[in-house]
Design brief:
- By secondary structure, the protein is mainly alpha-helical.
- It has eight helices and no strands.
- Helix 4 runs antiparallel to helix 5, helix 4 packs antiparallel against helix 8 and helix 5 packs across helix 6.
- The radius of gyration is 17 Å and the shape is elongated.
- 38% of the residues are buried.
């Protein structure tokens, strides 16, 4: 597993326990039968978490890739909500984006065969989402406060899709099983 991101930014540090509770809720509410029905439609007998491990790696990767379309549509809805909120866009958009990313990450974990009921998986998901989203918003790498303010002012104009792709790539690396080496 990839180690948890360092909390370089305080933007989400104080809300980390709240994000962990949200990750727990997203993991518990996930409909695993819906996630695994894709595998059954492909001809694999998947009814439990252990059955997912028998599904070929490429099929699991494909299922995880298919999740992106649904969650990108959710993020577009978040962007529209942010546009309607006007100057309050960051106050509305950032929490909504974080919840979407937590739900996407929980679904991704189940699709890979990770037991998302485990507190360790939920904590890792919350840490990645909070750390990486904070880094995207603040412009990690020594960006000025003016650049961060500009990023927040431009919420709702598409940058959330870029942020989400980068955050979810990290979640994917963390939950992806190591493929067999040849």
């Amino acid at each position: 597993m990839i180690q948890q991101p360092a909390m370089r930014h305080r933007i989400f540090t104080d809300s980390r326990p709240l994000l962990e509770r949200a990750a727990r809720f997203m993991a518990m509410r996930a409909d695993t039968a819906r996630v695994w029905s894709f595998y059954r439609a492909q001809g694999y007998a998947v009814h439990t978490l252990e059955d997912v491990a028998a599904v070929p790696y490429a099929v699991r990767e494909h299922k995880v890739s298919l999740l992106r379309a649904h969650y990108r549509a959710c993020i577009i809805g978040e962007m529209a909500t942010g546009q309607l909120a006007g100057p309050l866009s960051p106050a509305v958009g950032v929490p909504l984006l974080a919840l979407i990313l937590l739900d996407w990450g929980a679904q991704m974990g189940w699709a890979y065969g990770v037991d998302m009921h485990q507190g360790k998986a939920q904590t890792l998901l919350a840490a990645i989402v909070s750390g990486d989203l904070a880094a995207e918003i603040t412009g990690a790498g020594g960006k000025s406060p003016a650049q961060m303010a500009l990023r927040l002012l431009l919420m709702g104009w598409g940058q959330e899709l870029w942020w989400a792709d980068r955050v979810m790539a990290h979640v994917r690396r963390a939950f992806r099983p190591a493929p067999l080496s040849l």
